[in-house]
Amino acid sequence: MRRNLLPVLALLCGTLFLFLGNGLQGLLLPVRGSQEGYSNEVLGLLGTTWAAGFVIGCFVAPNVVRRIGHVRAFSGFLSLICLNVLLTGLMVDQNTWLVLRAITGFCTAGTSMIIESWLNERATPESRGTIFSFYISITLFGVVGGQLMVPFGDVATPALFMVCGILYSIAALPTTLSRAASPQPLKRARLDLPALFRNSPISFVGILLIGIANGAYGTLGAVFATRAGLDHGAVAAMVSITIFAGAIMQFPAGRLSDRMDRRHVLAALSAAAALAGLAVFIIRPLDVYGIVVLVAIYGAAANALYPIAVAHANDFASSEDFVKVSGGLLLLYGIGTIIGPTLGGPVMTWAGPHALFAVTAMAHILVTAYAIIRSRRRAPVPVEEREAYQTAPASTAPLATPESLSLDPRANAEAAAETSARKEAS
Q1: How far apart are CA 153 and CA 252, in angstroms?
Q2: Quick check: 302 and 273 in contact, CB under 8 A?
């Protein structure tokens, strides 16, 4: 393991600081915005603009890197992120925040894709699985660690925004100081919606709905907790527990889906997430323990859905199409995260902060219903012919990029097929 990780240790450290900054900034903005009296609609749009910038970055960033190179592009993207977070702390204005948040999402996609391409370049077939697992773990712990910093600072001052800038600056060092050769050009993101739907209708519809639910909660969960009267420490704990519960649940849920129809597992988990969300909406617990317990159950079920839906889609696709199918579904999930906060904000204004979970519950009820319908119309792939389940970072952390899929060991089949095709052509 030491031999596998040493060549990429500096990059993984840079990744940790990048996601520490992402986690801190992602929770700091809705908490500070709530204190400033921003409406639920504006706070929801902070997530919408970030997700929109991120998805656009997945398409545009490869062209930027191709023109100016990996190191210059990485330095430029991170410089803009640092500038934006400092301006956010200095210029407390909702319209300014929305513009800066969109730019941050765009630049975050660029920096993530460059780090992932560097990791992929240095990974060997033997070390790819280890590096991929560490990368997922680091994104998880980075986001949670950043969120847990919020209670240790004064949200009403620019201090925590400055801490974000420091974290982003440290993240730039490992890559900008590296003497390693630049990796291959970034792959362009591809999104073929008709082909994705033909391959697996439940994965297509389900991942869009999962993105809506996760996007709504991911952006407005802290707003709900603040409006419900939780202090900053409890808000950070609630949001972090949701992520950890989802990460832990991925393993048993995934193993179960390897042994039975994945659509039945999707339906059961979606129903559990819907019930937990409806419980929060209807019961409206007043004590922090009741809220945290229900939200932990919600997070465990909701955050385990995405990788199962991806695994189901790959069951019906050839191994050579893994990156194309998974990358397309990842971008479709990103579209869902754009829609979710846009819907959640007005609903919370109309029906109260607990109505956030009415939005997520409706999305999960639709996933449950459609999964049951599809399970009666198409036979599952036999267990012995399925792709093995793998955890996925998109469901428990900020959006992953299609470039990250190249690190997945399952991408080796596609890479091998491309190499073989090139040899035959020559």
Answers
A1: 37
A2: yes
Q: Which residues contact 387 (CB under 8 A, 6 or more apart)?
A: 311, 314, 315, 319, 322, 410
d(CA 374, CA 202): 7
Q: Mark out the alpha helices in 260-321 (DSSP H runs).
A: 262-283, 288-302, 305-315
Buried b or exposed e, range 353-364, using 16+ CB within 10 angstroms: bbbbbbbbbbbb
The pLDDT of residue 309 is above 70: yes
How far is the C-alpha of 119 from the C-alpha of 122, rounded, in Å? 5
Distance of CA 298 to the CA centre of its chain: 17
Strand (E) or helix (H) holding 415 = helix 412-425
Q: CA quadruple 333, 334, 339, 341: dihedral positive or negative?
A: positive
Neighbours of 213 (CB within 10 A): 30
On the question of pLDDT at 409 being above 90, the answer is: no
What pLDDT digit, counting tens, does each position of 384-397 carry?
A: 666 666 666 555 55
CA distance to 71, 115, 178, 187, 359, per residue, from 182 (Å) = 8, 11, 10, 14, 44
The predicted pLDDT at position 426 comes to 43
82-103 pLDDT, tens digit each: 999 999 999 999 999 999 999 9
Neighbours of 334 (CB within 10 A): 27
- Neighbour-count burial of 162, counting CB atoms closer than 10 A to its CB (0-12 exposed, 13-18 middle, 19+ buried): middle
Contact 55, 400 (CB under 8 A): no
Per-residue pLDDT for 196 more than 70? yes
Confidence class of residue 113 from pLDDT cuts 50, 70 and 90? confident
What integer is the mean pLDDT of 26-54? 94
- How does the average pLDDT of the chain come out, rounded? 85
Please tell me the distance from the alpha carbon of residue 307 to that of residue 256, in angstroms, as a whole number.
13
The radius of gyration of the chain from alpha carbons, rounded to an integer in Å, stands at: 21
Per-residue tokens: 53: 């910038």
